[in-house]
Amino acid sequence: MPELPEVETVRRGLAPSMENARIARLETRRADLRFPFPDDFAARVSGRRIVGLGRRAKYLLIDLDDGMSVISHLGMSGSFRILQADEAQMPGDFHHPRSKDDRHDHVLFHLERDGERLSVVYNDPRRFGFMHLWMRAELDLYPAFAGLGPEPTGNSLDADYLARRFRDRVQPLKTMLLDQTVIAGLGNIYVCEALWRAGLSPLRKAGTLVTATGGPTAELVALTGAIRAVIADAILAGGSSLRDHIQTDGSLGYFQHTFAVYDREGAACTRPGCGGVVSRVTQAGRSTFHCASCQK
Questions:
Q1: For the chain, which domains are there?
Q2: Which one of the listed residues 2, 5, 172, 216 is annotated catalytic?
Q3: What is the pLDDT of residue 22?
Q4: Which end of the chain is more exposed for a tag (fewer CB within 10 A), N or C?
């Protein structure tokens, strides 16, 4: 499932074509994806102007000029591609191609922008993605957003905040960091990578990173910086492009080629002077990759 950097990559790729465009017609080719479309979805969206594209955690937000937002989740195999009026191919040379089979084109935004016509197509072979409509002023009331923690890219994520959340907690660091009420949108891949960068074991109790007075230890300060840095690096590289994910122009991101531990079981740890080997353990049903030699 795409993680936050992948969704942010999609947002940035779509924005130049979608922002300030008028939706001449929204075409839905089936009644549902993972969930049914909202009542009168096509009629309510057609004719509206897109005032901006946003993101909350792993959700793409398409903001309309009537105060509504289309909330889109890519699921496991969803993707968007941009089609110009005279071009029906997805450009790019990539390893793990997304589906271009139009049998899986389920939603088409037919747009008018600066006198030109184009279409943005949502393709989803597995149909685990979905689209909802919600009032933008009440996004915090959307069920999936209620209680979400701060974004890992925002200023509200700092070591003092994590110290308050980690204090007296006996849960493993990996479990705490995957809790969406602690940090929104942080997923398995980038938790593994951030913990490696900070030199911290995913099995360590979260409360051990908090001082007796409730403040952050130096290790927690380092972890906070590692989280922000690994997300920023992944966004800059265009997302990890694992399995189904590609950018909207069809090209792959390349952060996957710099993974230190994720999906590298049995490989030598790349930390200078470590000499350890990456191992895999299972936590709460998820694979955790780490180096037991240098992550303490």
A1: 4-141 (3.20.190.10), 159-291 (1.10.8.50)
A2: 2
A3: 98
A4: C
Beta bridge partners of 118: 84, 111
CB-count burial class (<10 Å; 0-12, 13-18, 19+) for 129: buried
- pLDDT per position as a tens digit, 251-294: 767 687 789 999 999 999 999 999 999 999 999 899 999 999 99
For the question of whether the overall pTM of this predicted structure is more than 0.70, the answer is: yes
Active site residue 280: no
Q: Which residues touch 249 (CB under 8 Å, ≥6 apart)?
A: 13, 82, 90, 91, 92
For the question of residue 58 being annotated catalytic, the response is yes
User: How many residues are there in the chain?
Assistant: 296
Q: What residues of the chain score a pLDDT lower than 70?
A: 1, 85-100, 241-245, 252, 254
DSSP sequence for 94-120: -SSPPP--GGGEEEEEEEEETTEEEEE
DSSP string of 234-253, one letter each residue: HHHHT----TT---TTSPPP
Contacts for 154 with CB less than 8 Å, ≥ 6 apart: none
> Residues 56, 58, 169, 197: which is the catalytic one?
58
* Catalytic residue flag (residue 36): no
